[in-house]
Write a structure and sequence with these properties.
about 525 residues, alpha/beta, Aldehyde Dehydrogenase, Chain A, domain 1, Aldehyde Dehydrogenase, Chain A, domain 2, 2 domains, 7-stranded mixed β-sheet, 20 strands, globular, binds nicotinamide-adenine-dinucleotide, Ald_DH_C, Succinate-semialdehyde dehydrogenase
């Protein structure tokens, strides 16, 4: 049997041998001996394998192995750990096409989207390799008594960091977040989504080839409610990316254990078309914002607010560009949009559109499956007349469906954009970037892109990224993305005099002396 990319498939039987890449070797790296679950390719519906899942003792044993490896890893000089990330960067670029194939096979995404994800991973590896020394460097802080009190602050790794990952971007959030934890001296215990284990295994495999100790990063496999909960029971910190509903569950589990967590959750992201926006550029940007990765992107736009003045012109241009999106599957750059990842995801998209239609919304374009292209294809869809009674008004659809709303002016656009339980990303289009930044400051979203859909902030690894309101806690990327994986430790060394009455001083005299010292320090302007 030949796959769509023209390669010979080893078999269509349900064993790891069936996958057209190094399947058996990767599968053997899972810390899993329990009952098998089926994995099925979103790209090629005939391609399926069985993979073992992790039992509670598999998860516990994997955690032990990772903790043991962490002792040696944390003791290595930071420069050695940075070197592993730099070598990984090169390996990712060398293996770019293989990783992109895997992303497409697992997720059904279009080629360019897959390549962008791979490049983003390499970019992140270089960023943390280059900046870790500056962010994690040992610092001297002011002591209570100048000269007498020396304060040293350094950062200790948390130990074992758990990652629970979603299926939509199995490299970019998942492995990228892990790189920051790794360079800081941590071990990792990762649970990829059931639908995307292979690409995660391939990336961890490349890290081993780049010099990471073999047992330092363990991968477990299985259903979230079971294996995810076991993982949380083992780790010292959790880095979770997924839906807001699951985020609440895992946050409660972390609270019970008194461990920290970062939560990268869902969104209902607004795109604002201000009355001075360039129509062509904005329409093209709105297509990227709404339909990249078939809308299965945490930062993609699902609500477009258009200034009345541009309503007709923008809608026409946007619909024309949406209808021109090339839909299909191939392992080259022929198509701009691939399929959805699963039947569940397709059902969710269909139910949102059916609900909106039944309650009076108009489908301006799209609104149907495309079984002629593959079982999981759905057309890019634009809705109008969406009201608060419809599920797609406030709930995340997480598919290629966007609604257009007319607004009188900028004030109404900002008010309606902020009228959401979420606050992940926003996109503002205007002929005046200063105006765009002024509007951005009024939006309650963790990232705002002016005259870009999402890539300006997403691709700028030096800038923290994350959500406000129900979109999450904590930040990935930037120094914040690294500092969440360490704990500051402060060492105070006192010399000559104790911080207590001594040398015959009475407590009263000591207290008065301290009071005078505070007044003097303030008048000298010292902190
Ligand atoms: P999900 O919450 O269903 O699953 C995410 C992960 O959590 C999976 O690995 C799953 O197995 C696991 N899980 C499920 N239930 C669990 C439980 N009870 N305990 C522990 N783990 C559990 O999310 P999804 O459908 O895979 O991903 C889509 C969602 O992720 C969307 O809402 C999207 O917006 C969000 N997302 C956010 C970001 C971001 O950076 N903010 C990035 C990507 C995706």
């Amino acid at each position: 049997m030949t796959t769509l990319d023209g390669r010979t498939r080893l078999a269509t039987v349900e064993t790891p041998d069936a996958v057209p890449w190094d399947g058996p070797r990767l599968a053997a790296q899972l810390a899993a001996t329990g009952p098998s679950r089926q994995w099925r390719s979103a790209y090629d519906e005939d391609l399926a394998t069985e993979l073992p899942t992790s039992t509670p003792s598999d998860v516990a044993a994997a955690a032990d192995r990772a903790r043991t490896a962490q002792q040696e890893w944390a003791a290595r000089p930071l420069d050695e750990r940075r070197r592993v990330l730099l070598d990984f960067h090169d390996a990712v670029l060398d293996q770019r096409d293989r990783l992109a194939d895997l992303l497409q096979y697992e997720g059904g995404k279009a080629r360019l989207v897959a390549i962008e994800e791979v490049l983003h991973l390499a970019l992140t590896a270089r960023y943390y390799a280059r900046t870790a020394r500056e962010v994690l460097h040992h610092q001297r802080r002011s002591g209570i008594f100048p000269l007498l009190t020396r304060i040293d602050q350094h950062y200790l790794p948390r130990g074992l960091v758990g990652i629970i990952a979603p299926w939509n971007y199995p490299l970019s959030p998942t492995i990228s977040d892990g790189l920051a934890a790794l360079v800081a001296g941590n071990a990792l215990l990762l649970k990829p989504d059931l639908q995307t284990p292979y690409v995660a295994l391939a990336a961890v495999d490349l890290l081993r080839q780049a010099g990471m100790p073999a047992e330092l990063w363990q991968v477990v496999h299985g259903a979230g409610e079971r294996v995810g909960a076991e993982l949380i029971g083992q780790v010292d910190y959790l880095c979770f990316t997924g839906s807001t509903a699951t985020g609440r569950i895992v946050a409660r589990q972390c609270a019970d254990r008194l461990i920290g967590c970062s939560l990268e959750l869902g969104g209902k992201n607004p795109l604002l078309v201000l009355d001075d926006a360039d129509i062509e550029q904005t329409a093209a940007g709105a297509v990227r914002a709404s339909f990249s990765n078939a809308g299965q992107l945490c930062v993609s736009a699902e609500r477009i607010f258009v200034a009345d003045r541009l309503q007709r012109e923008f809608t026409d241009a946007f619909l024309a560009k949406t209808r021109a999106v090339r839909l299909g599957r191939s392992l080259d750059f022929e198509y701009e949009m691939g399929s959805l990842i699963s039947a569940d995801q397709l059902a969710r998209v269909e139910s949102h559109v059916a609900d909106a239609r039944a309650k009076g919304a108009r489908v301006l374009t799209g609104g149907r499956r495309r079984p002629d292209l593959g079982p999981l294809f759905y057309e890019p869809t634009v809705l109008a007349g969406v009201t608060a009674e419809m599920a797609c008004y406030a709930e995340e659809t997480f598919g290629p469906v966007v609604s257009i709303y007319p607004v009188r002016d900028e004030t109404e656009a900002v008010r309606r954009a902020n009228d959401s339980a979420y606050g992940l990303n926003a996109s503002v289009w205007t002929g005046d970037p200063v105006r765009g930044r002024r509007v951005a400051a009024q939006l309650r979203c963790g990232t705002v892109n002016v005259n870009e859909a999402y890539a300006a902030t997403f691709g700028s690894i030096d800038a923290p990224m994350g959500g406000m309101k129900n979109s999450g806690l904590g930040r990935r990327q930037g120094p914040e993305g690294l500092l969440r994986f360490v704990q500051p430790q402060v060492v105070g060394t006192q010399s000559l005099l104790p911080i207590a009455p001594s040398h015959g001083l009475s407590p009263q005299t000591f207290a008065s002396g301290l009071t005078v010292a505070l007044r003097v320090l303030k008048s000298l302007g010292r902190a």
